[in-house]
From TrEMBL:
Protein name, per record: DEUP1 protein
PANTHER family the record matches: DEUTEROSOME ASSEMBLY PROTEIN 1, SARCOMA ANTIGEN NY-SAR-24/CYTOSKELETAL PROTEIN SOJO
Organism: Himantopus himantopus
Domain of life (superkingdom): Eukaryota
Keyword hit for RNA-binding: no
Major place of residence: cytoplasm
Amino acid sequence: MEADFSEMRDELQSRDALWRRIQQECQQLHAKLLKIREYEDMQEIQIKRQSSCVQLTEQLENKNAELLLLAQSQEHQREELNKIRNHLYREEQSHRSEQERMKTEISDLTEELHQKEITIATIMEKASLLERQLKMELEIKDKLLAKQQLLDFRYKVIQSENTHLKEMV
């Protein structure tokens, strides 16, 4: 994109230089026109040089026609230059807008990532706490199960003693 901008700037500079040359030619032609007019005045006095005056007049008309064409070309180049400048401006604005949008999006994504990291840390804390609680409950249940098994064993022993005593009686 930078290359396009540089190319457009180079083209603008080239057209500006052409415009300056055209203006210099116009000034030179105007100077020549003044000289030709002076020359025409002298030719009115000198009849012998009348044919030269006609040629100079034709040249002047040709130069005037060229000047008109150059002026039209210059106007067209100005319009093109303005179009290029406007296009360049719009492209720069679009580029800036896109950069701002991307910065905002990156900022939003960074904030979202930060929130997710906080959420993950909170979940990990809770998971760790739940794991400790489960281990404690498991230990308690293991103890209760051991007591239950011990009680069941004692019950069976007592029951077997009772059965044995009943048989003896």
